[in-house]
Design brief:
By secondary structure, this protein is of the alpha/beta class. The protein has eleven helices and 17 strands. It folds into two domains: 118 residues, NAD(P)-binding Rossmann-like Domain (Rossmann fold); 209 residues, 2-Layer Sandwich (Dihydrodipicolinate Reductase, domain 2), CATH 3.30.360.
């Protein structure tokens, strides 16, 4: 494999691939030869390329991991597919639905593996909840709600490419972490979001940049800072409607002190409720009206199906964010080994279809807010 864009998420891709044990990490491509060589030394990778075209042209590389900023996703992913390489891309897949559809169509036509790292699907108890709902153990869902809250953009001195619309797209927090929540809600519930009503806010209207942008969750270097007016949201609340008539709501924000990676999803059905929190990811809350509530702990003796396959340690041994990420990468390479045949893909594995759909949901949210907070339908075209 080769990796393009060695920023915050890159070492986690490399770690997951190396845990597979039989994949050669060939090269890294960065924004310049010097930066690529620095990262290659840091990550113990043999080859460094100063641009992504050279890496994609390397005949020894069969799989491309794309961890570049959003504005490069279209060019990098298309070039990789056109070169006959399988692609594992960071989310969001694209800057907007038009780009997302272009990538989805190109990926499907290529016959190659195409994966988007909606990594929270890889948590064992997320899959336990999904399978309980699929088996109708929760009954008919009526309400799906939750949040994804962080605090790394609380300070006006926090400035990364993610707050720059030219690199991140029209949305900041929705595209970055709202896409995770929406994908997780649809994946676990088995229901599609069909309409949204949104209220977006920019809590920090001016940020102060010190030279080049920094990686997510890192601090800028000292020195003179330039004020930059923010054009995208850092806090959002959204009402949603699902295809079966169920209602929902969620909030996302990155300016909320004390919330580090607070992703929560709760699904309320006619029989029971199911709740999962990323920061307590080895627990699944089961709520009932006629019996005591319960906490299902992550334990291979207690879970089933995909949840059992993803549970790699005995009960009482905590599994974490990196383990869920590994589960998705493992499924991606299992699919690649099967020549990316559609029938060989895990039901859990998120593809460019899911990535495109996510851009459509986020677009509807942006349109709702721009229209003054009115309901907007999700405009999405399934693959032919």
């Amino acid at each position: 494999m080769g990796l393009i864009g060695p920023g915050f998420i890159a070492p986690h891709h490399l770690d997951a691939v190396r845990r597979l044990g039989d994949i050669d990490v060939i090269a890294i491509a960065g924004s310049s030869q010097a930066s690529a060589e620095k990262k290659a030394r840091e990550y113990k990778v043999e080859r460094a390329y100063g641009d992504f075209h050279t890496l994609i042209a390397d005949p020894e590389i069969q799989v491309i991991h794309n961890t570049t900023p959003n504005h490069l996703h279209l060019a990098v992913n298309l070039a990789a597919l056109q070169a006959g390489k399988h692609v594992i891309s960071d989310k969001p897949l694209a800057m907007n639905p038009a780009e997302g559809k272009q990538l989805r169509d190109a990926a499907v036509a290529s016959g190659l593996a195409h994966v988007v790292t909606f990594n929270y699907r890889g948590n064992p108890l997320v899959q336990q909840a999904r399978e309980m709902i699929a088996r109708d153990e929760a009954g008919r869902l009526c309400f799906v709600h939750g949040c994804y809250l962080q605090d790394y953009l609380t300070s006006p001195d926090a400035y990364t490419w993610r707050v720059d619309p030219s690199k991140a797209g029209a949305s900041n927090v929705l595209g970055d972490i709202g896409s995770h929540w929406c994908d997780l809600a649809e994946h676990v519930s088995g229901l599609k979001i069909v309409a949204v009503l949104a209220d977006l806010t920019t809590v920090v209207p001016t940020r102060y940049a010190a030279g080049s942008t920094t990686e997510a969750f890192s601090k800028q270097a000292g020195g003179e800072r330039t004020p930059v007016a923010m054009q995208s949201e850092d806090l959002a609340s959204v009402l949603v409607r699902f295809e079966n008539g169920a209602k929902g709501c969620f909030s996302v924000g990155q300016t909320l002190p004390g919330h580090k990676n607070d992703l929560q999803l709760e699904l309320n059905g006619s029989t029971c409720s199911l709740g999962w929190k990323q920061e307590k990811q080895n627990e699944l809350w089961i709520g009932r009206h006629d019996q005591p509530n319960a906490i299902l702990m992550k334990d291979p003796g207690l879970v089933s199906g995909e949840a059992l396959r993803y549970t790699r340690l005995p009960g009482g041994h905590q599994e974490a964010w990196a383990d869920a990420f590994f589960n998705i990468v493992h499924d991606a390479y299992t699919w690649i080994r099967e020549d990316a045949r559609p029938e060989a893909k895990s039901v859990v594995l998120p593809t460019f279809e899911d990535g495109y759909r996510s851009t459509c949901v986020i677009d509807a949210i942006l349109r709702s807010h721009a229209a003054g907070g009115v309901w907007q339908t999700v405009q999405y075209s399934p693959a032919a």
